[in-house]
Design goal:
InterPro entries: Gaa1 (IPR007246). It contains ten helices and nine strands. By secondary structure, the protein is α/β, with parallel strands linked by helices. It has two domains: about 250 residues, Aminopeptidase (3-Layer(aba) Sandwich), CATH 3.40.630; about 110 residues, no CATH class. It has a seven-stranded mixed β-sheet. A two-stranded antiparallel ribbon has the order 8-9. The radius of gyration is 26 Å and the shape is globular.
């Protein structure tokens, strides 16, 4: 692909260009398979015109329009930071004529209509990485303040009288978030900012036919973007007070790492207990030859064999190397079947996971 990104910088009149905020929009042509983002570009240009007249900005504001989805945003980030992501020669980024300060946060806009009925906040980044929870809460509060319906995972906050039905609804929302993180694929252009230590989210606006009276117009959406950017402009330091590891069953509730880490620790703890017991069984007293023979004989009677353990460890490492290098093979096979790269890797890993779960039952036979 050969693409071109367009960006502009509004310098902060009250600071020395040491920090910056990014407002980005992905450009999508008419023949794109994704939803149109032309309204987002219109809003970005209008907001840039508005920002030029204001004198209270303490951070530079970068307005960015990228081409070719995540390839464009990755190329721009590489050029901005002067680095190369991945293998050399795969993604070649040009030189940027101008730079701002260190990017603190980024807001990616994907508005698909001039009349917005609801806004979905997307947070999942590359390899399941999440932004700071305060940024997500800020976006949700500003959307609710303007009277536009907010959602997460394209699911609205619904309150059922039946407690089990209410729990099941939010549990499904939680599972959708976990599944999205497990794929490792960013849900928007914001996901590539995370690898540079930049907190970022995507605001995706949808039109709901049949409810024109409740639709929010572009003025309200513009106020949402302005409120978020002005709040970020007032930050004296980077996001660090809230959580970076969390689960969201709804837009206004969260599960912190302090709750779900216990179950994970129990799962991992079992592995260490097993490893410690195996290490204890390998300890052979060398005090006398008789004791040594007795211990060896007792170990054999118990069915302990160091060769079995060695072979298991060897096979585990071989499988690990094979899985680590499998994306190249999966991409090649998927290309033959007209699959996209992300779909080939996702379904390939699903197949590998299923085979891994089935293998212990097959080996017992």
């Amino acid at each position: 692909f050969i693409g071109q990104n367009i960006y502009g910088i509004i310098r902060a009149p009250r600071a020395a260009s040491t920090e910056a905020i990014v407002v980005s929009v992905p450009f999508r042509p008419i023949h794109s398979i994704y939803l149109d983002t032309a309204p987002s570009i219109a809003l970005l240009l209008a907001f840039a015109k508005f920002c030029r007249k204001q004198k209270y900005w303490a951070k530079d504001i970068i307005f960015l329009i990228t081409e070719h989805e995540q390839l464009g945003i990755q190329a721009w980030l590489d050029a901005y930071h002067g680095v190369t992501s991945g293998n050399g020669g795969v993604l070649i980024s040009g030189d940027l004529p101008g730079r701002a300060g260190s990017i603190q946060t980024a807001i990616n806009l994907e508005l698909h209509s001039m009349k917005i009925a609801s806004i979905d906040v997307k947070i999942e980044g590359l390899n399941g990485r999440l932004p700071n929870l305060d940024l997500f809460n800020l976006a949700q509060n500003m959307i609710a303040k303007e009277g536009i319906r907010q959602s997460f995972q394209r699911r609205f906050d619904v309150k059922y009288k039946n407690k089990f039905k209410n729990w099941w609804y939010h549990f499904n929302t939680l599972l959708m978030m976990i599944t999205s993180q497990a794929t490792g694929i960013p849900t928007g252009n914001h996901g590539l900012f995370h690898r540079f230590g930049i907190e970022a989210i995507t605001l995706e606006g949808f039109e709901k036919p049949g409810q024109q009276s409740s639709d929010g117009n572009f003025y309200q959406v513009g106020r949402i973007v302005e409120s978020i950017v002005r709040s970020l402009n007032n930050l004296l330091e980077r996001f660090h007070q809230s959580y970076f590891f969390y689960l969201l069953p709804s837009t206004d509730t969260y599960i912190s790492i302090g709750l779900y880490i216990r179950s994970l620790a129990l799962i991992i703890g079992g592995i260490f207990v097993k490893a410690f017991s195996m290490w204890q069984r390998l300890q052979v007293s060398a005090s006398t030859e008789d004791k040594k023979n007795t211990v060896v004989k007792q170990s054999k009677d118990n069915g302990f064999d160091i060769g079995v353990i060695t072979s298991e460890i060897l096979w585990a490492h071989i499988c690990g190397v094979a899985i680590a290098t499998s994306p190249f093979a999966l991409t090649y096979v998927g290309k033959k079947m007209d699959f996209r790269t992300e779909d080939s890797i996702y379904f390939g890993f699903v197949a590998i996971t299923i085979l891994t779960l089935i293998w212990p039952f097959y080996s017992r036979r």
